[in-house]
Amino acid sequence: MPLPPELYDRTYFLSDRCEGYEAFKARWGVSRIKGRQVALLAPEPGVRILDAGCGRGEVLLACARAGAAVAGIDYSEAAIEIAHETLAGVAGSEIVLGSVVALPWPDATFDRVLWADVVEHLDAGDARRALGEFHRVLRPGGVLLVHTSPNRVFRRLTWPLARPLLRAAGLSANVERVDAWLADALRYHVNEQTLHGLRRLVRRAGFADVSAWLDPDAIRGGEHHLTAGLDSSRLVASVPALIAWRPVRLLLSNDLYAVGRRR
Predict the structure, then answer these.
(1) Measured between alpha carbons, how far is 215 from 71 in angstroms, rounded to an integer?
(2) Res. 228 pLDDT band, cuts 50 70 90
(3) Burial per residue of 31-66, b for 16 or more beta-carbon CB atoms within 10 angstroms, e otherwise
(4) Angle separating helix axes 32-41 and 58-65, nearest 10 degrees
């Protein structure tokens, strides 16, 4: 069963509960994380991109500015209202109220599909159905890009161990922000992922050439509202070197990506 769309109101999208709000406030900009998604989508003229769970629409705006034709869908009326405002000056943009498990476009419509920060909000059955829909609307050779956060391993294993260390290092304010965010996120997150689980999920949906990875920038450049100031900590300064070792990245990184191609 999907979560009630009323959970995702304007307050949700126009706050840090929805990643990237600070950058969005600055004239519809994209955050560090969303900027990486735009780069991976490689928008250009002649490319048609669907943002499945488009939220405020800033990724679509960035893609449109690069020349791509863009479409977005979200089941939150608030998201659709904000996305229409964001894309008001973009001719030909298509923003639709609807569900990612029943897309209103015909087969083989898009060259790229972005599914960012949505899978964790869907139960397992709806996640599988959504992936089937993305496969259907992609053209042969088309690419699906998935992003999700947090890494379930981090929440369940790493964070309980890291909290006292960060407090001892004088980072109690960061600890409190993360604690509050994780507690609030549980209202919305019913299907948080792991690296191997996300890769398996995309493969089972029929996608080829599937790869999945965890972003090595575990502190998000110190720019995210949860990581602000961490880059100046002596304790955290060792993280970039440690995270080059893949087992450590599995424990510390919170930005999971997967890419798959329609056969």
Answers:
(1) 26
(2) low
(3) bbbbbbbbeebebeeebbbbbbbbbbbbbbbbbbeb
(4) 50
Tokens representing 172 are 């109690």
Dist. CA 72–CA 33, nearest whole Å = 19
| Amino acid (1-letter code) at residue 259 | V
Please list the residues that pair with 72 across neighbouring strands. 51, 95
Contact between residue 229 and residue 187 where contact means Cβ atoms under 8 Å apart: no
Query: For the segment 53-105, what is each residue's pLDDT rounded down to a tens digit?
Result: 999 999 999 999 999 999 999 999 999 999 999 999 899 999 999 999 999 99
pLDDT tens profile 129-179? 999 999 999 999 999 999 999 999 989 998 898 889 888 888 888 889 888
Residues in the chain, total: 263
Q: How confident is the model at residue 225 (pLDDT cuts 50, 70, 90)?
A: low
Task: Write the DSSP assignment of 17-49 as a string of letters.
Answer: TSTTHHHHHTTS---HHHHHHHHHH---TT-EE
CB 113 within 8 A of CB 145: yes
CA angle 101, 102, 106 (to 5 degrees): 130
Taken in order 113, 117, 118, 122, is the CA torsion positive or negative? positive
Check residue 238 and give its pLDDT: 60
Q: Return contacts of 69-73, CB within 8 angstroms, 24+ apart.
A: 70/94, 71/95, 71/96, 71/105, 71/110, 72/96, 73/97, 73/98, 73/99, 73/100, 73/103, 73/104
